[in-house]
Structures are given as structure tokens and as C-alpha cells.
Amino acid sequence: MRKKVYAVVGAPLTGKTTYIKNNFSDSSKYYWADVIESSKKVFGEVLIEDDDKLSEIYNDVNQGMVDHFFLGDKDVVFEYCTGFEETDGMLLELIDQIKSLDVEFELIQLDSDLEEAEKRNEQVRSEEDYYSSYFTGIDTQVVLAGFFEDYATNTAKEK
User: Fold this and answer.
1) Structural contact between residues 148 and 97, judged by C-beta atoms closer than 8 angstroms
2) pLDDT digits 0-9 by tens, 70-100
3) Rounded to the nearest 5°, which phi and psi values hold at 97?
């Protein structure tokens, strides 16, 4: 059975994290490649803006990808905030890179109306540990592109 990569994408406040938690929570089947969750796991808080901590976060996500996707049998899910020229281009490059591999790929595009976005905005303002994926697009792209480049190299050697 081919491995699968899911990209859950959408503008800020469309519910990407909630969608992943509701649909990909079975950790025996899925690995959530997420720099925010990794930072919380490693440091107990979100420290992706701390350059001294960022390499540890990247390494943690990368090791999770190796253990669960490359060596393991889990599918990978990641979220990506869209609607911004710079990071949208990076997402398209990442999608092309993933599609060039011998894996299945599914893009899940979320959207919401203004009323729902305003409701989510009020909700996240009360959450102390909320951190928008808007701020993680470059980090997500860097760590995943690096992993999938290594994955392509290593799976080519196996053939």
C-alpha cells in the first residue's frame, strides 16, 4: 500500500487545526507534521520565533517524519495557511515535490464565511496557547521540503 500525504490548507481562521484534530487524531495511522505542535512537545510552548530553538523543532518534526512515514507505516498530514503570495508559491513547490514521489497526495481546501471566521477569531483570542499557522508557512515548507528531498534520494537508492 502506498504511503499518503494530506495537506490541509486554507486562509487564517478556517479551522485547519480543528479539522486535523477531528479527522486525523488516530496516531496509529497518521503523523501530524506540525512545527507548532512540535514546539509545544519539545519546549512546552511555541518558540518558533526563537532561532536558537528552531533547529530543535525542525529536527523533531523531521525525526517524526523519518520514524513514522519513511520507516513506519503512518500517513502524514500537515496544515498550511494560504492566501499570501510568498507562501502560496512555496506551497505549490512543495505540492509538486510531493507529487513527484511514489506516494498518494490529497489536498483538503478549507474555507469559511465571514461570520464563522469572526466566531473563530473570538474563540482563539481566549486561548493562551493559540498560534496561527499564518506564521509557520516558511517553517513548514523548509522542514517538509527538506524531508521529502531526502525521502526521494533514499527511496531512489532502494530501487
Assistant:
1) yes
2) 999 999 999 999 999 888 999 999 999 999 9
3) -65, -45
* Chosen CATH of 4-149 out of 3.40.50.300, 2.40.40.20, 3.30.70.20, 3.40.50.720: 3.40.50.300
Grid coordinates given for 45: 510552548
Residue indicated by cell numbers 490529497: 106
DSSP-derived letter for residue 136 is G
Cell 487524531 locates to: 25
Checking phi first, is residue 28 left (phi over 0); if not, alpha (psi -120 to 50) or beta?
alpha
CB 38 within 8 A of CB 131: no
Which residues have CB under 8 Å from 127's CB, separation 6+? Answer: none
Query: Is the model's pTM score more than 0.85?
Result: yes
